[in-house]
Design brief:
The structure holds two protein chains of two kinds. By secondary structure, chain A is mainly beta. Chain A contains four helices and ten strands, in the order αββββββαααββββ. The longest helix of chain A is centred in the N-terminal third of the chain and has 5 residues, at 17-21. Chain A is globular, with a radius of gyration of 17 Å. The two termini of chain A are 23 Å apart. Chain B has a single domain, classed as Protocatechuate 3,4-Dioxygenase, subunit A. In chain B, the strands form four sheets. In chain B, strands 3, 6, 11, 12 and 13 form a five-stranded mixed sheet that branches. The chains are: A mainly beta, B mainly beta.
Chain lengths: 189, 243
């Protein structure tokens, strides 16, 4: 089979807001009024420890029941939820800060059928990033599920630590360090 | 019972010499403090990575795809049609795909607080657009030819004319943000962002082609830019790392 040559990546540059943040995709995956709503906040920082004010963070997640709103997730026994797309994006123009309002995703299976702990896939774009970097965010109140998560189990403890958010003033805090001490663990996806 | 553990492979920088640029490309100064230095974790794709956002028609309006009709008056500059197909690496068209673009105006200035380049803003040009691909994977924008502009990367640095593109593909790993360039741009040899793609053939895939068939007679020039998503190298290359 002949594979077409893939289109290469280029940086999102400093002006991404014009095309990506002024459109229909927002950082509100769920309504604030939803009793299940959770707030995720963090800061995107560079290798000097400085905030990155011209970046963008995207998240992709299953709904609260653990089903992805996508045809490849055809597990009819797990309900879909009208209006929950599972996708959101936040700019970081306020001193590197990003924020999401969403619901905690349910558990979804790993490749061998074991359950993964609740998690979000996270993609990061910025001036100076020639291609997206990708990571995962896990939840601090899921100790049992995290302890048996096939992805977390495959990592060194210090790598694992960078992927688990922590509770702070009623929100989930998840900072992303692009480079240097305490660098977030990134995945080749 | 002790849960089964998996140790994942580590890759210095997935696809280092292949299609995509490396994370760290020092000629592009912005990468020096932002490129991750730790090896990337390589793991199999689970349901989380086999899925990704899906779009409907709801959120878009017609002027989203025509950047020359988003204001009361018409923008300055050469009117152009930019059109092409969004395909999987298997050659199949990707339907209903959200395509998002943004660009500088004809004078090389972005309508953005951070852009302080001494060139005029155009009150009739915001520079952002979006559309969904048709059943054959095709998309079409009407806009103006963006100007080249200076940037502070190195002395007398200029970006070639370009339009930023954002695409999704079939699943999370396919997500792509890139830039479309224009044929014959004299600034190509001097641009570290363009040249961060080390493979010449891959680099040339970012250059649109002029197509007479896409022009609108007496009205606009036409450029074709096809986009291929997915089919990323399954096993990232283990390249020697020199840092």
């Amino acid at each position: 089979m002949t594979e077409l040559g893939r289109t290469p990546s280029q940086t999102v540059g400093p002006y991404l807001k014009i095309g990506l943040l002024d459109g229909p995709i927002t950082n509100r995956l769920a309504d604030e009024s939803d009793p299940r709503a959770i707030h995720i906040r963090g800061v995107l920082v560079d290798g000097a420890g400085d905030p990155v004010p011209d970046g963008m963070v995207e998240v992709w997640q299953a709904n609260a029941a653990g089903r992805y709103a996508h045809p490849a997730d055809d597990r009819k026994e797990v309900p879909l939820e009208a209006r929950f797309t599972g996708f959101g994006r936040s700019g970081t123009e306020d001193a590197g800060r990003f924020e999401f309002v969403t619901v905690k995703p349910g558990r979804v299976p790993w490749v061998d059928g074991r359950l993964q702990a609740p998690h979000l896939l996270v993609g990061i774009f910025a001036r100076g990033l020639l291609k997206r970097v990708a990571t995962r965010m896990y939840f601090p109140d899921e100790e049992t599920a995290n302890a048996e998560d096939p992805v977390l189990l495959g990592l060194e403890p210090e790598e694992r630590e960078t992927l688990v958010a922590y509770a702070e003033d009623g929100v989930l805090r998840f900072d992303i360090v692009l480079q240097g001490a305490g660098q977030t663990t990134f995945f080749a996806v | 019972m002790q849960p089964e553990t998996t140790a994942f492979a580590r890759s210095p920088d997935a696809a280092f010499t292949e299609t995509d640029p490396p994370h760290l490309y020092p000629d592009y100064v912005g990468t020096r403090l932002r490129a991750p230095k730790e090896p990337l974790v390589v793991m199999p794709a689970s349901l989380s990575e086999l899925t990704g956002p899906v779009y409907g028609n709801g959120a878009l309006v017609e002027t989203d795809a025509d950047l020359t009709r988003q204001h009361h008056g018409e923008p300055q500059g050469q009117r152009i049609v930019v059109s092409g197909c969004v395909l999987g690496s298997d050659g199949k068209p990707l339907r209903g795909q959200l395509v998002e673009i943004w660009q500088a105006n004809a004078a090389g200035r972005y309508q953005h607080a951070v852009d302080t380049h001494d060139a005029p803003l155009d009150p009739n040009f915001a520079g952002g657009g979006r559309c969904l691909t048709d059943d054959d994977g095709s998309y079409r924008f009407i806009t103006v030819l963006p100007g080249a502009y200076p940037w502070p990367n190195h002395p007398n640095a200029w970006r070639p004319r370009h339009i930023h593109f954002s695409l999704f593909g079939r699943a999370f790993p396919d997500r792509l943000v890139t830039q479309m360039y224009f044929p014959g741009d004299p600034l190509f040899p001097f641009d570290p962002i363009f040249n961060s793609i080390r493979d010449e053939r891959a680099r040339e895939r970012l250059i649109s082609t002029f197509e007479l068939e896409l022009t609108e007679p007496d009205w606009a020039l036409g450029f074709r830019f096809d986009i291929v998503l997915g089919g990323r190298e399954a096993t990232p290359l283990e390249e020697p790392h020199d840092d």
